[in-house]
């Protein structure tokens, strides 16, 4: 039996779906259309293969992306955004623009002092 969650506000709900370091970067990498696993791995520097697999599974389970398996030799798998994932990407665009605008200031934060 699965338990549904209750959220305190829209931001709480959105962060539950896209939270973590990698999902936003994966969404960004998928914005222009279907991408194969190897291409995704190269498009998201620093992510391990294991973490990428786990994140993709979570994103598929939450309905953010679609996994298409082509039964051929060699096997081919492509990932693409669903309408739900695309709408989250659109919503995150403003946050990305804010980050770009304040990149210098954010990079100057002494992150080791932040608790």
TrEMBL record:
It comes from the Bacteria. SUPFAM superfamilies: Winged helix' DNA-binding domain. GO terms for molecular function: DNA binding. PROSITE patterns: HTH_HXLR. Pfam families: HxlR. Residues 9-107 form the HTH hxlR-type domain. Coiled coil: none annotated. Keywords: DNA-binding, Transcription, Transcription regulation. This is Transcriptional regulator. It comes from Amycolatopsis thailandensis.
């Amino acid at each position: 039996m699965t338990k549904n969650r209750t959220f305190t506000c829209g931001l709480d709900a959105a962060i539950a779906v896209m939270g973590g370091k990698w999902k936003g970067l994966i969404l960004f990498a998928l914005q222009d259309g279907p991408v194969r696993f190897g291409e995704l791995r190269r498009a998201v520097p620093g992510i391990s293969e294991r973490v990428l697999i786990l994140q993709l599974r979570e994103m598929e389970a939450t309905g953010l992306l679609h996994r298409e398996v082509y039964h051929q030799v060699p096997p081919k798998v492509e990932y693409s955004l669903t309408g739900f994932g695309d709408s989250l990407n659109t919503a995150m665009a403003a946050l990305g623009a804010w980050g770009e605008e304040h990149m210098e200031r954010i990079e100057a934060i002494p992150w080791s002092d932040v608790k």
